Amino acid sequence: MEKPNIVYSSKINKIRSFALILLFAGMIVMYGGILTKSTPWLMYIFFGLGVLLILFSTLVYFFIGLLSVRAVPVECPSCGKQTKMLGIVDACMYCKQPLTLEKSLEGKEFDEKYNSPEFRRKLKEMKKNQQNQE
Ligand SMILES: [Zn+2]
């Protein structure tokens, strides 16, 4: 059986492409407004929707800015570039190399589930137990 070849993209890149899609969608919807200008109410709906989408995309860009501040800058071991990580596991923004901040996860297969709060809690407990044993 063939293994699915999933390329993990960096979370920041993912959100950024989402914001870009929103921006384009907003412009397309507004263009729809120009096409329907013979029907004023339809035109207003299109324009209103377009403005909303563009505003939302601006919000998402703002959100990326906030996230970038919280992200951990690391040097990618694979391409040597400075990249930013969100959460325990993330991918390099440039070469898509999966990266982890957690030593115990090194070498393990990349899995988004490691970023869930549930897993974080488990990890914390694991560390606590280890400290108690020492
Ligand atoms: Zn890289």
Estimate the global geometry from the Cα principal axes.
Answer: elongated
List the ions, cofactors and other small molecules found in this model: zinc ion
Q: Tell me the number of strands.
A: 4
* Termini gap: 44 Å
Structural class: mainly alpha
Percent helix among the residues? 40-55%
How do the SSEs run, as a string of H and E?
Answer: HHEEEEH
The helix tally amounts to 3
Low-confidence stretches: none
Please name the defining characteristics of this protein:
binds zinc ion; two-stranded antiparallel ribbon; elongated; 2 domains; mainly alpha; 134 residues
Please provide a brief summary of the model.
This protein has 134 residues and is mainly alpha-helical. The protein contains 3 helices and 4 strands. Helix 1 runs antiparallel to helix 2.
Task: Characterize the structure shown.
The longest helix has about 30 residues, at about 40-70. The strands form 2 sheets. The protein has a two-stranded antiparallel sheet with strand order 1-2. A two-stranded antiparallel ribbon has the order 3-4. It folds into 2 domains: about 10-70; about 70-134, no CATH class. It is elongated, with a radius of gyration of 21 Å. A hairpin with a 6-residue loop joins strand 3 (about 90) and strand 4 (about 100). Helices cover about 55% and strands about 10% of the residues. With about 130 residues, the chain is mostly helical. It has helices spanning about 10-35, 40-70, 115-134; strands at about 70-75, 80-85, 90, 100. The protein binds zinc ion.
